User: Fold this.
Amino acid sequence: MSRVRLHEFWSAYKNSKLGISGLVILIFFVIVAFTAPLLTPYDPMQDKFLAEGSALPAWFKIFPQYSGLPETMDFTVQSEVNGAGWSFKLEGPIILNMQAPLTFTFKAADGVGFSGVAEFAHRFDYEYSPPYSFRVNMSLQFLDINNATYSAELYILTPESDSFLVWSSGPSRRPLEPPNISLDSKGIPFELKSRMGLEWHRNVAEHIFSKRGPYTMILRFRVDGDPGGPSILSVTLGRLVLHVPGRVHGVLGTDHLGSDLFSQLLYGSRISLMIGVSAAFISVIIGLLCGLIAGYYGRIIDEAAMRLVDVLLVLPGLPMLMILSSLFGRSIWNIVFLLGVLSWPGFARVVRARVLQLKTAAFIEASRAIGSSGSHIIFRHLLPNVLPLAYATVALSIPGAIMAEAALSFLALGDPDTPSWGRMFYSAHSFGAFQRLAWWWIVPPGLAITLLSLSFVFIGTTIDEVLNPRLRVVR
Amino acid sequence: MGFKAYVARRLVNTVIIVFVTVTLQFFIFRIMPGNPLAHFISPNFPLESRRALMEMWGLDKPMHEQFITYLSNLLTGKLGISFISQRYVIDEVLERLPNTILLMGSSTILMIVLGIHLGVLAGSRRGSKSDLASVTFGLLTQGLPVFFLGLLLMLTFSYYLPVATGGLINFPVAGTVSRPPPADLPRYFMDVLWHLTLPMVTLVIISFGGYTLIVRSLMIDVMAQDYILTAKAKGLPERSIIYGHGLRSILPPISTMVGLSLSGIVGGAVITETIFSWHGIGRYLYEAVLQNDYPVMQGTFFLLSMVTIIANLVVDLIYGLLDPRIRY
Assistant:
């Protein structure tokens, strides 16, 4: 379109409320698609376990019954002696090197068996209702061990002074392997659970952190030197990290893997726009070519093309898409290609009908009379006349492509590596969003698909009314 | 063109479409990368059944012979053996076919009746509130994905409302009939109807808005015609003008529209059957795709396409009956 006609088009388009509202919605989604990384700090697929799986949205905390729910808490105890680090208690022949990182050394004299205890404690506050789980990580580097037996234990002391043993190395004469404490409250051995007085199926985290208030983390080493040998044990403490996954997270909570649903919603607009637009372009280009060629050349070409159109119009599209995408492989580009290749027949029919009308027009006859070639007539004379049909068709076939991709992803037949709105539905449907009545997991992606599709319906309808006035409803 | 000639042309056309469809299917499953044998014979089958299947599909023969064997197999209902259940695909499919026809048939009829009725109402009272409402609704459903609607209905009627009303309103989450099914016939019928409601309503809501829009614009065109004016001048009652003269003359294009929407309804039915765990062909196809059960994929796709092709033929024949230019 030349600049003048574009200007004319716009002045007619902007009078349509429908067209303008479609454009506004579309621009909104395009902005979201481009600025997604600025709007959310999380990666929609890579960042897992940001909080507990299926966490509630953070704003639920304004309601009193949810106000105490824990937020994700990462709590570090530095390897030093002060407020941010440990307080300590030593018994027996143990010396502590106070410089960070903390190192304690047990040394026993020749021929005499000695015992020693090194105890490190840190107080912290827990101000939420009980969490589902917690994890503790800490590295312990054994510098030296000879003729000594040690056992290391990790306790959590509650505000009511109940002490719970959550981890134990057991008596050992060798360095810890692997050299760290790595503890998940969901994987605590039955033996420790029964020592806490819990049945095997009970939740340890809920039991330990059942009260709000000051808790104490206690790391305790007991060392026994062998009778006879010179005994030595030297251990460097690393940082201790306590991780409590939140039961609330972000704007829309998390999915079953603890990924951020809000970022999935934002990033989903990219794939929908990309697939919708490119599939629509492919299908319109195929439809244009097929309609032009079949309409202009007629006879056997026309007959063959129209039978193929009949078949593709009759065959159920989604089942065909499901089968083909599973045979071709489930990548985005395969889906775009298949959507484009399967959805052109309707438009080809329209183009063909228009070409059949135009073919008898005087300017085509004239062009043929002066000996223009078929391709010249098709691309120079026929194409510009059917192109106005194409603009609206592109817009009007995008919703179909968007919804088909979403349907495939919902059926878990889409690209597994891409965040998409259909995938959010899949995870909601398969991983318990319904049992939890988690409407915030189900409604936003649905509304997003609906709004984006509608914006193209509105735009397409308006373009159609502006460019093809003879199709306007007779008043 | 007489009605007989019209029917003959439609029949020939249908045969061509069936032929092209099965040919496409033949090539899709044989041209794919990898061993085509893998699409027919599971490596887990015992040696004798593998040999029997080789022979049945003629997989060791040249392509053109395979094609003829393939055609005659399809026509005699030999669709192969499922990789997963190791039963004949045709048995499995026939077991599910009545459920799919029940769901698709009932919802198609409902959406046609509703769509035509609302379209006529809106088109004959242009600019009224009911017109505006149907146009808005019709436009909105153009952007509504079928799985979103299905899941919303399920969330509302099978999860929220049972809790809110203490089980008074409670629609099933899954299945075609309760387990165990009720023994006496009237209760069995009611039970199936109770399971059918949500998937059927989903399909109807998704589709009838589009029908309404098309019927409405056809109706607006027709009401501006001279013969309607004549009918009004004769003093005929409005009802008979709208239905006897207006609707009567747009029935042929409506039947074309129904024919064109059939393949979309099948796609919607696959999703609805999956969401509501409806024991039908669509869900069976989905399970087969998930498990790479190629013989089932081919068999169900063949049957689903046959259902739409035959339904299209029926629509074409009805068109012939409705259009006086063809009938006489």
In short: Residues 471-475 of chain A have pLDDT under 50 and may be disordered. The CA atoms of residues 140 and 364 of chain A lie 87 Å apart. The first strand of chain A starts at residue 73 and ends at 77.
